[in-house]
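User: I'll paste a sequence; please echo it back and then give the predicted structure.

Assistant: Echoing your sequence first, then the prediction.
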Amino acid sequence: MLKKSILMILIIMLAVCGCSAPTGQNYDVSTTVDDTSEQLQAIEQAEQSFKAVSNDNQQDDQQAEALKWVPNFVTVKYRDTSVDIAAPYFEYHDTTGSSFIRGAWYDQNNQYMVINLDGVYYHYCAMPYSVWMNFKRADSYGRFYNQYIKGQYDCRQGYVPVY
């Protein structure tokens, strides 16, 4: 991609630089017209190639954006279907400092939390965003989970989002 861009710039520079003749030399007008015509064609070809490279770059950007979301389906205890915790609607919070919480994901639109407790995924429904924000700021994720989340947002009592 970078090589193509550099090549296109060089082609355009050569085409543009070749348009002016060095001073002090005599040229046949017909030759100069032919040369100019060829140079204009070269510039047009360079522009077309540059546009093609730009399109390739846009496609590369779109492919890179698509690759950012690599699905990660997990089985959640007490849920019939798996959940893709890598989906863009989930916000991930790294809980590396916790002794038993291995990660937490929250979907603000559905007020839905998935949490990994020692390798087992659990879910919580109708959990307010404010609880999620406080969880993320907690000094101890485990203590906060036990005190404010565990047993509070039972999905059997509320809406379980369909993903």
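The beta strands are 73-74, 83-84, 91-93, 101-107, 112-117, 120-124. The radius of gyration is 30 Å.
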